[in-house]
């Protein structure tokens, strides 16, 4: 599975976890069509879940005129994924994580989601 597709599936799984509080493995099973599990997808979902408190605090420290709980679920999930990659994935350059989050925001978010995601993540580099 290409990393772009893995990120999209990870976003969907993390969104489900945040919405319905199912566990990571169940969420991954819901979004993966085939029986083959992708290592990057698993790393991303489990990594965000494991480091969620640290990631949320890090994001919250870089928000201006917003509090973390006020963020829409789509933006919150995308920020968490990108922040995880920026902080914990040594093989992913920060700019790649930012660009991928922006592209996913264009698909799943509102009109201004991409700009918002870019602004917050750029401050975190």
Automatic annotation (TrEMBL):
User: Transmembrane stretches, by residue range?
Assistant: none
Keyword flag Transcription: yes
- Keyword tags: RNA-binding, Transcription, Transcription antitermination, Transcription regulation
Give every NusB/RsmB/TIM44 domain span: 5-124
Output the InterPro entries linked to this UniProt entry: NusB-like_sf, NusB_fam, NusB_RsmB_TIM44
Q: Which SUPFAM superfamilies match?
A: NusB-like
Among the Pfam families in the record, one is NusB
Q: Which family does it belong to?
A: Belongs to the NusB family.
**Described function:** Involved in transcription antitermination. Required for transcription of ribosomal RNA (rRNA) genes. Binds specifically to the boxA antiterminator sequence of the ribosomal RNA (rrn) operons.
**Protein name, UniProt field:** Transcription antitermination protein NusB
> From which organism does this entry originate?
Halobacillus amylolyticus
Q: Which gene encodes it?
A: nusB
